[in-house]
Amino acid sequence: MKIVVAIKRVVDYNVKVRINADGSDVAINGVKMGINPFDENAIEAALQLKEQGKATEIIAVSLGGSVNQDVLRHALAMGADRAILVETETKLQPLAVAKLLQAIVAQEKPDLILLGKQAIDDDAGQAGQMLAALLDYPQATFASSLHLENNELLVTREIDGGTETIALNLPAVVTADLRLNNPRFVKLPNLMMARKKPITSIAATDLGVDMASRLKLLKMTEPAPRKPGMMVSSVEQLLRQLRDHEGINL
Predict the structure, then answer these.
(1) 182/210 Cα distance (integer angstroms)
(2) DSSP helix/strand/coil, 83
(3) 6-42: per-residue pLDDT in tens?
(4) Max Cα–Cα distance, the chain, nearest Å
(5) Domain segments of the chain: what residues?
(6) How many Cβ atoms sit within 10 Å of the Cβ of residue 46?
(7) CB 157 within 8 A of CB 143
(8) What is the pLDDT of residues 114-165, one digit of tens each?
C-alpha cells in the first residue's frame, strides 16, 4: 500500500504571531518556521501503518517555494521514503491546494492520502475535504484512531457529541487530529541523513492546475484587547451588573 502525506510549512507553534505594520498579512520574515503540527500527526500515522506491515511506501508532499525543503527533510528524517516539492511562489488557498494534490495523486496513485485536519496559520480546515470531493474518494476528518484490515479502514473521528467510528474502502482521504498519536522525536543523525536524500521538484505550472485566488484578503488586525474583569461579592451583585451594564432582562 502506498501512502501520500501532505505537509505544510507554517510559523512554529511556539512563536507569537505578529502582523505586518501595514496590516497586509502575518509577519514571517526572520520568524522560525516548521512543519504544521497536525501534518506531523499524519506522518506518524503513516509510519505506524508501515511498521505494522500494512504500508510499503510513504511519500511526503509539500507545496510552496524551495524553503519548503526543510519540512520535507523533517518528514524524511521521521521515516518517509520519498519527498515531492510542488514549487510555486503563489499564495495558495485551500481549493488550489486540493487541485495540486489531486494532480499528484493522479501521478502517484496512492491507496491512502493523509493530511492534518487544518493548518495552524489560516485554520481553514478545508483542503482534505475538497481533495476528497475532487477525487470522489471516501473521507474521514478529525481522525483520532486508525485501524486497517482487509482493505477497509476503520476511523474513529472527533465530533461535537464525542466520537464516531466509520469504515472506509480504499483509496480514501483522512485528516488527522492531534489525538491520533504522539509524533516520534526526530534524532539529529536522522536529520543529517535526511539532508542527503533527494527531493523531487515539480513546477506547479506543469501540473495544469488553476491556482487563481477566489478570496481577497483586505486587511488583517489583531483582536481588540479584552476589557478587564470585575469581581463581585454575591449572586445579587452579579445579576445587578448584568442588568445595568449588559442590558440583560432578568
Answers:
(1) 36
(2) strand
(3) 999 998 888 888 888 888 778 778 788 889 999 999 9
(4) 69
(5) 2-225
(6) 30
(7) yes
(8) 999 998 888 888 899 999 999 999 999 999 999 998 888 999 998 888 889 9
